[in-house]
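Lecture 7, part 2: worked example. A protein chain together with nicotinamide-adenine-dinucleotide.
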Amino acid sequence: MAGRLEGKVALITGAASGIGRGTVDLFVREGARVIAADIQDDRGARIEEEYSGKARYVRCDVSDEAAIAAAVDAASRHFGRLDCLFNNAGTGGANDAADGVSAQNFDQVMHLHVLAAMLGMKYAVPLMRKSGGGSIITTASVAGLRAGYGPLLYSTAKGAIIHMTHVAAAQLAASSIRVNCICPGLIATNIFASSLGVPSQLAETRIDAIAEASRASQPIQRGGRPRDIAEAALYLASDGSDWVTGQAITVDGGLTLGPQGMEQLSAFAPIVQALGVDQEALAAAAAGQSSPAADR
Ligand SMILES: NC(=O)c1ccc[n+]([C@@H]2O[C@H](COP(=O)([O-])OP(=O)(O)OC[C@H]3O[C@@H](n4cnc5c(N)ncnc54)[C@H](O)[C@@H]3O)[C@@H](O)[C@H]2O)c1
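Predicted complex, written out as structure tokens:
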């Protein structure tokens, strides 16, 4: 059976690790040829070895406009077209608080996440138009949807990506170019270790431990994996999503549904107390059971 990306060419940034690497693996398996762009040459070389002829590594620091242009050009030179751009490179960034933002950190974080994605579009769109359309996907985050999931600058950048997605999608729809983003929840990758200064070789050995430790962090009780996000990217890159544009697709095991069960109920505790209702009745009501009081 033909793969879902048979004949398509994708450029993936941040391809050497985590979500990007998981997406390279899935896209190649589904028949795509891939330009894997990153700044980790050793890991890039491993991708080329593993997927000889199907994936090419390009060194591309997405903070450098010329490097982005060259990565898009590589898609054209090696594979003759570009059907999908996955703007995915990123780091946790600086931890500036709301009353202590540095202009330099703001510029660095916005450049890495927002401007890089815009420049990716700038160079990818002309090539996509030549082959009649394409799909642009950017990795946003649940931190772009709600407070509490990331540092201020990172969260602001991810929020900007979500709205960039809306506006760019409206502009590019007439060219049959779809623009969507994905909002991952907690995914077991190196991003946490690199934000905390843990060397990447050590971090790599802790990925399973991160997944295990985050099992209960969301309603679906298993840790998020790069493959979970790669599957969403596959859908958005494939013709199966031909009528989907301007969307921010949340893939988070239910994390953004908010607090669950008794944790949620604790917010109502003072009200319940003031009403003289017992906690047991409230818990039963929240669980969808009729309360003993209501049965009487
Ligand atoms: N892991 C999560 O929980 C999570 C959640 C929400 C969003 N995200 C986003 O997912 C994306 C991928 O992160 P990940 O979790 O896979 O982390 P990761 O650290 O495993 O991978 C990030 C990759 O981006 C590359 N990169 C960093 N700076 C770059 C630059 N200037 N130019 C080119 N490449 C660069 C790194 O070398 C690395 O290979 C990021 O945009 C991140 O913000 C991650």
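The longest strand covers residues 177-184. The CA atoms of residues 37 and 265 lie 46 Å apart. Keep this in mind for problem set question 3.
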